[in-house]
Amino acid sequence: MQVPNSFKLALLKQMLLGFQLSAVSSNSMSFHERKNAIKLSADAAMVFARGSTRWTRGLVASLSKNRNNEDLLRGILGKKYERLSLPCCNSWKIPRSRKILKRCLGLCSRRKKATGTQHDVKSSSTLARRLVKKRIQVLKKLLPGGESMEGFSLLDQTLDYAVSLKAQVDVMRRLLKISKASNLNLHLKEEEEEEEEHAQRH
Amino acid sequence: MPVEMSSRRSSRITDEEISELISKLQSLLPESRRRSMSRASAAKLLKETCSYIKSLHREVGDLSDRLSDLMSTMDSGSPQAEIIRSILRS
Questions:
Q1: In Å, how far is A191's CA from the nearest CA of chain B?
Q2: What are the UniProt keywords, alphabetically (chain B) (predicted)?
């Protein structure tokens, strides 16, 4: 699954805007300040590119918790900031999505055949269910806004988020590559010019 | 099997939607091609999904580090600024 190019372009633009707004290329920032500004720009840009969905709202909510982030968030998101901060009604799919999803993931004990003793069958499916429950808890913490999601919505939003994250990584990688190349070109050019000057004098 | 009816709307999440979602998730994960799709257990799918997201988070952190290093060595009157300006203009 991939995002359209327009998504990546929007992400790149807003991220660069964020860099400008927080003046990342100035000398007055510490490494950590700069890194945080970069990361915040990247996340806000990803939210901008994706638009309104549960995980983007969750991400805006958690990024907004730090007061220092507000200016940059507003700068990158513009009008979207207010819209994404509004509370949103819960999906009607929630009440049944957990049950239906678990049914299809084969977790209902009814479906398991009694191949061994009653005791064996019961404990293996109980273990499976416990393990799944545990991992769902982990997933909920990884997904922005995940704590309030269940079943189908949780997985659906997870897919959406993972695809967007991958795009964010791709854009950052490409920017790093281009910036390095242009930086290198600049230095090579400077060296060439120095050599020429040197040659002219002699 | 008894199915609850939503009190507000009559649409449901179909089995098809669910298996499509699961197969999309599987195709995202790096190891999915080796394993046969139908064998994946829920526990394994969740574990690999969580690992995948964590690894993406780590990559973003690492790329932020590297971009931070790079930005500190560039001045704002450089080709980088020109690239930025040309992208923002489009």
A1: 15
A2: Growth regulation, Transcription, Transcription regulation
